[in-house]
Every structure is written in structure tokens, then in C-alpha cells.
Design goal:
Layout (H helix, E strand, L loop, with lengths): L2 H15 L4 H14 L5 H19 L3 H17 L4 H16 L2 E4 L4 E3 L3 E3 L10 E3 L6 E4 L7 E10 L6 E7 L2 E7 L9 E9 L5 E4 L9 E9 L16
Antiparallel strand pairs: 1-11, 2-5, 3-4, 5-10, 6-9, 6-11, 7-8, 7-10
Helix pairs in contact: 2-3, 2-5, 3-4, 4-5
């Protein structure tokens, strides 16, 4: 099959499914670079094998195996005589996925409309936490990712108001209203988890929205890049050799 025919198939699939993400995006980039002559067939085959191995590991809920394959992928790209722009494009994705979760302390973000830094409760990470979110305050994480895709976000918060409090998390046109259950006291922290599609250079904003009641403290946000692979359900493999 010609490169032109493969590109046409990609375009037809992307229309209903959207562009490939994470590991599948990496596989596509390897193929496109090979079609363009930037990768020789032997190296392309070895890179493709490592991407396939990482996808298989991700589908089997084996993050360690996925990262090992991606580290081998990175070593191959780094050692090969590949054009700098092609290598940078491949390494950007493999590096983010191999690195795994990344925690961003709330106090390192841009604090807007009265949000403030505090240290008057225990149990926080970093140098403090963000508080004073009582009316319209927000915390802005500028350009939190360098590679776009679906991320699992874990927000470490404290809420001792006695009731579930709400805040809004947004990135570009995508937003989610968070319901943060009450905890034992202000020295107790918990994590709220959700998935959100993030894009490079787009801020992630934790805000007191127009329909929120706020009054929570934010300690950190952990970003875990999704591999883009479908996880294998145990029931789906029952009875198979």
C-alpha cells in the first residue's frame, strides 16, 4: 500500500474517531517519518516493535512494562542519525508517557482574584497550599502539558465545611464541575480524580465558578498522561488459551 493510500485511510478514520492520541499517535509519527524517508526501514521496524510492546503493556494495565518499552524506544531514537526535528517530535511523546505522573504544587500556579497562599494547616506537600477561594477566586496552571491528550487528574484538596463543596476545572473549551466531599478537618487531605483532554499551551484553571460554593483548599494537581490504549477487561480473556 502506498503512503498516499495510507494517509487517505488515516483521514477517513480520524473523521469519526478523532486523531490518534498518545501511543497510537507515536505509532503514526513513526510511520509518517518512515514514509517521508526520515527513518530507514530497519530502524522503523525496531521502533514499531517497541511501540507495539508498549501498547500491549498498556492494554494489560502494566505501566512498568509500557515505560520500559518507551525507554528502549527513546534510546533507539537518541542513538540514531535522525533529523533533529523528527527526533524531537518522537521524543516529546515517548518522554511524557515514560515519565508517568507529574505533580504540580498549587502554590507554583498563578493565583487570581484573591486566591492566597497559606501554611496554617498541616499535611500539605511543597511549601504551602492555596486558600481564600470564597467568591470568584481561581488558580491558573499555565501550559501544564507539552503533549496533548487525555490525562487523569488528581486534585489534592481539603474541605472541612461540613458539606460537599463545588469548584470548576477547565482547560480551553472543556470544563468539569467538581464535587468535593467534606473531610474530618482542615488538616485532612483527599484526592479527587477525573479525566480531561488537555492541549499544549492551554492553561488549566481551578476556579470558583458562577454556580459553585467554593471554600476549599488546594494543595496540588497530579497529571497522569493516558496511554491511549484500550484496557483489556479480565472477562474478555476468560476461556482463552
Amino acid at each position: 500500500m502506498s503512503a498516499q493510500a495510507r494517509t487517505a485511510i488515516d483521514d477517513r478514520l480520524a473523521a469519526p474517531l478523532g486523531p490518534p492520541q498518545a501511543l497510537f499517535s507515536l505509532a503514526l509519527k513513526v510511520r509518517l517519518a518512515t514514509d517521508a524517508g526520515a527513518l530507514d526501514p530497519a530502524l522503523s521496524g525496531r521502533l514499531g516493535t517497541e511501540v507495539e510492546t508498549s501498547i500491549t503493556a498498556a492494554a494489560a494495565d502494566d505501566p512498568a512494562g509500557m515505560r520500559e518499552a518507551l525507554n528502549r524506544f527513546t534510546a533507539l531514537v537518541t542513538a540514531a542519525p535522525i533529523p533533529a526535528d523528527v527526533a524531537a517530535d518522537l521524543l516529546a511523546i515517548s518522554g511524557v508517557l515514560a515519565a508517568g505522573p507529574r505533580r504540580i504544587e498549587a502554590e507554583s500556579a498563578q493565583l487570581l482574584s484573591g486566591a492566597c497562599l497559606r501554611t496554617d494547616h498541616t499535611g500539605y506537600t511543597g511549601t504551602g497550599f492555596v486558600a481564600c477561594m470564597k467568591t470568584k477566586e481561581s488558580v491558573r496552571f499555565n501550559a501544564p502539558v507539552t503533549v496533548g491528550g487525555l490525562y487523569t487528574l488528581r486534585l489534592r484538596y481539603a474541605n472541612a465545611m461540613g458539606t460537599t463543596q463545588t469548584m470548576t476545572l477547565s482547560s480551553g473549551t472543556r470544563s468539569s464541575r467538581l464535587k468535593l466531599p467534606t473531610l474530618a478537618n482542615w488538616d485532612t487531605w483527599s484526592e479527587h480524580q477525573l479525566s480531561l483532554l488537555l492541549t499544549p499551551a492551554t492553561p488549566l484553571i481551578f476556579a470558583f465558578g458562577p454556580n459553585d460554593n467554593g471554600n476549599v483548599n488546594l494543595d496540588s494537581v497530579t497529571l497522569d498522561p493516558g496511554p491511549g490504549a484500550i484496557h483489556r477487561h479480565p472477562a474478555a480473556t476468560r476461556g482463552r488459551p
